[in-house]
Amino acid sequence: MQERVKLELPEGKSNLLLHSCCAPCSGEVMEAMVESGIRFSLFFYNPNIHPRREYELRKEENVDFCKKMDIPFIDADYDMDNWFARVKGMENEPERGIRCTECFEMRFERTALYAAEHGFDIISSSLGISRWKDFNQVTGAGVKAASRYPELKYWEYNWRKGGGASRMIEISKRENFYQQEYCGCAYSLRDTNLVRISNGREPIRMGEKFYGME
Ligand code: SF4
Questions:
Q1: Is the CB of residue 46 below 6 angstroms from any atom belonging to ligand 1?
Q2: EC top class, in one word (predicted)?
Q3: Which of 49, 89, 99, 180 is deepest in the core (most CB within 10 A)?
Q4: Atom of ligand 1 nearest to the CA of 188
Q5: Residues 157 and 8 sit within 8 Å (Cβ to Cβ)
Q6: What CATH architecture is 13-179?
Q7: pLDDT tens per residue across span 75-119
Q8: Which 3 state secondary structure label does DSSP give 93?
Q9: Cα(96) to centroid of ligand 1, in Å?
Q10: pLDDT tens-digit readout, 112-138
Q11: Which among 109, 188, 195, 213 is the best mutation to test ligand 1's pocket, defined by most ligand atoms within 8 Å of the CB?
Q12: Would you kindly state where each structural domain of the chain is located, as residue ranges?
């Protein structure tokens, strides 16, 4: 495993609120920050995740890993109706398109609001580490959300670099994290299943209905 470099928060910032999308993505980010002595709390706000039991599964795994690492976990609760309202009309947009920009912005707006109200001076997210995501799209949404508050900054650190992407996979295996098979929302579940079916594979089954439109 490639050794990590020591990280420092930019611009003299000292208290980070880390938005986490899931344990597999945040594991490496968390370990890197603990190793560097960075003070942070984890913020779980992901109203995109569908259905509810998938949301609970991803959240519980984050809760358990935070306990293990002795990191404060902030549960921002499920906000599904607002998420569906926000992406209305974008149901058939492809991944990495405008629905995803809205999805990132919604999650980061809540992260930035919580940070500003609770004494955090910088935010970042584990979303940027995934190779399935457009790093610039994620970062752009984070910078935009933080810019609403004069004292707040979004840390544009690329967690994939310096071996981060491969350590993320190693940590997921070591911790036996649940490996989700789609990005998170009902539409990504539907589209993933359509691809699987067209390739002769079994769809991801979520109870009776497997298109994620419960
Ligand atoms: S595909 Fe992923 S990032 Fe895009 S809207 Fe759905 S959950 Fe959000």
A1: no
A2: oxidoreductase
A3: 49
A4: 1
A5: no
A6: 3-Layer(aba) Sandwich (3.40)
A7: 999 999 999 999 999 999 999 999 999 999 999 999 999 999 999
A8: coil
A9: 8
A10: 999 999 999 999 999 999 888 999 999
A11: 188
A12: 13-179
CA–CA dist 130, 139 (Å, integer): 12
Q: Other CB atoms closer than 10 Å to residue 44's CB: what's the count?
A: 24
* pLDDT for the residue 179: 85
User: How far is the CA of 7 from the CAs of 17, 26, 38, in angstroms?
Assistant: 15, 16, 8
If you measure from the C-alpha of residue 186 to the centroid of ligand 1, how many angstroms do you get, rounded to a whole number? 9
Summarised one tens digit per residue, pLDDT across range 143-169 is 999 999 999 999 999 999 999 999 999
12-21 residue pLDDT tens? 999 999 999 9
Q: What's this model's pTM, rounded to 2 decimal places? A: 0.94
CA of 36 to the centre of ligand 1 (A): 31
Indicate which atom in ligand 1 lies nearest the CA of residue 48. Answer: 7
Report the alpha-carbon distance of residue 172 to residue 53 in Å, rounded: 20
Say how many C-beta atoms besides its own lie within 10 A of residue 95's C-beta.
16
What is the CA(185)–ligand 1 centre distance, in A?
6
**Helix, strand, coil share of the chain (percent; to 5):** 50, 10, 45
Residue stretches of the annotated binding site: 21-22, 100, 103
Is residue 48 within 6 Å of ligand 1 at its C-beta? yes
